[in-house]
Amino acid sequence: MSSKLIKNKELSLFEALIPVIVLVVMLAYNVFVYGDSSLGGSNQFILLLGGSVAAIVGLFNKVSFKKMVEEVAENVKSTTGAILILLMVGSLAGTWMVSGVIPTMIYYGLQILSPSIFLPSALIICSLISIATGSSWTTSATVGIALIGIGGALGFDLGMVAGAVVSGAYFGDKLSPLSDTTNLAPAMAGTDLFTHIRYMTLTTIPTYILTLLLFIFLGLTVEVKGTVDINELLSAISSSFNVSPWLFLVPIVVIGLIIKKTEPLIALMIGTLLGAVFALIFQPQIINQISGVSSMSFQSAYKGIMNAITTEVVIPTDNKTLSDLFVSGGMKKMLGTIWLILCAMVFGGVMDAIGALTRISSALLSVAKSTFGLFASTVGSCLALNITASDQYLAIVVPGKMFSKAYKDKGLAPENLSRTLEDTGTVTSVLVPWNTCGAYQAGTLGVSTLDYLPYAFFNIISPFMTLLFAAFNIKIKQLTKSTSNF
Which residue did the predictor score with more confidence, 29 or 383? Predict the structure, then answer.
């Protein structure tokens, strides 16, 4: 991800905010008209319209069109890894469905996770996996998908389940030394990794405890929609798939590869291929069904696996509760999310090229007269960049570079800045529908960002917790003080 900022002294704050205001108004109206289906294409075009407004502002300020296009190209280039991961997640979900990996997770999960403990259990499971892997994206693509299936089978609102998955995934992504954002934030602020992690626990642990208590409360008080006969569900799953504990080897191998710091793309590719092999071994009847033949051959096996990887596959079942769960969209399902990311990068690229991102961040910095004001400006800058630049990394890199000197000038240790970057830049990215993180989670989990947003308690509480600590001067470390207590 490019971390440079385009400077444009001619741009006023009002001019810099024009594209943002127009974008927010258009997106709000678009969501009002289309609801959950706004991600089907209309939001993407709204982002292009927002980019056009930003380009007009830039042209009035003598920024060349060529310069804007070049910056857009750089932004799009920076999303290459994310796009490839999205495609691989789609293919992995396809083979894991037809191989019976996901149905097997649901089968055993239904027997262990009762409704009363399901939500806090989902939070804890995702937290542990994310700590181990250092990746919120991998967590959602593996156990997250399975938990969505289990929650749906138990009758939970999928927004609640996705909120628990996202909260747990970003807890680990934020604290794990294997996470890219956990390494990026201290690098930008000027501190070391483990000092950053140790200091970050001061705000993260209270936030996590509050999140856990909220999910425990929800689990005990929320009535699931209708009653679910678990025995009937178990029978329906076992009649459609050959359920076996051996199928757990596939996700165990993938998680093990990530823990060993294998590149995510390689781990996901191996997971996809393993899923394909296990599908041929454990679910030959499903492969035959997908390929439209009665007996297995090399051609039918090839066709069945390729269909599962690339297109929508439906595993028929007589149980209505499971009918929507046994559907996999493959790589095709991810194209809408990729489309959204590309359009978001157009808007963010033009905003960067015309100097709007620099101008907005500078305005936020100018109001930082007190220690609390400095923290609040950092939080506001991270939020603004997650919304306008549509990228988690820019929301860490840009404020990190801009505010580093200000924190030192106020005698504050750099870990104050790195913690604030994570408490806001990392975790709020997933709350913005057109941000790469929000688009990814919605596409992977099959739950719209606006549906899970009210239940992503960890992500919502985190920036408020860091502001609370700043307001009451709780454990705000000075440059001159010892770090031994942290």
Answer: 383
One-letter identity of residue 234: L
pLDDT tens for each residue of 407-418: 887 888 999 999
Residue from 473, 479, 445 nearest 167 by CA: 445
| Residues 153, 392: Cα–Cα separation, whole Å | 33
Q: Which residue has the tokens 């100097």?
A: 355
Q: How far apart are CA 51 and CA 17, in angstroms?
A: 12
Distance from C-alpha of 176 to C-alpha of 134, rounded to nearest angstrom: 5
Confidence of residue 279 (pLDDT cuts 50, 70, 90): very high
Q: Which two tokens stand for residue 147?
A: 């938990």
- Count how many residues are written for the chain: 486
Q: How far apart are the first and last CA of the chain?
A: 31
Tokens matching residue 469: 């600590």
CA dihedral 36, 40, 41, 47 (to 10 degrees): 50
- The answer to whether 230 touches 111, Cβ cutoff 8 Å, is yes
Torsion sign, CA atoms 18, 19, 24, 27 = positive
